[in-house]
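quick one, 106 residues, struct below
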Amino acid sequence: MSWTHLAIAGAFEVAWAVLLKSTEGFTRPLETALTLGAMALSFWFLSAALRELPVGTAYAVWTGIGAVGTALVGILVLGEPRGSVRLFCLALIVAGIVGLRASAGP
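---
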């Protein structure tokens, strides 16, 4: 269950990172509330995952999911650049996440 919690935490990290731009410097109340709610849920699920997972592994995977997910939303939804070097670097992060998961055990 800890890996599921970590995946959910990563998804909420993507959500708050994407929503953060829409807060316009925390001047838009609804967007700010949604961002802060997603942040809180992300941290809550991360803390649940940390009950069983090593902190170094969990934190690296959590930030990796957030980084790759946010970059992909930027590319696929927000029209950000999708150059081959950028995609290759994202693939390297994914490889690191997979490697950490494979080496961490249950």
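The chain is about 80% helix and 0% strand.
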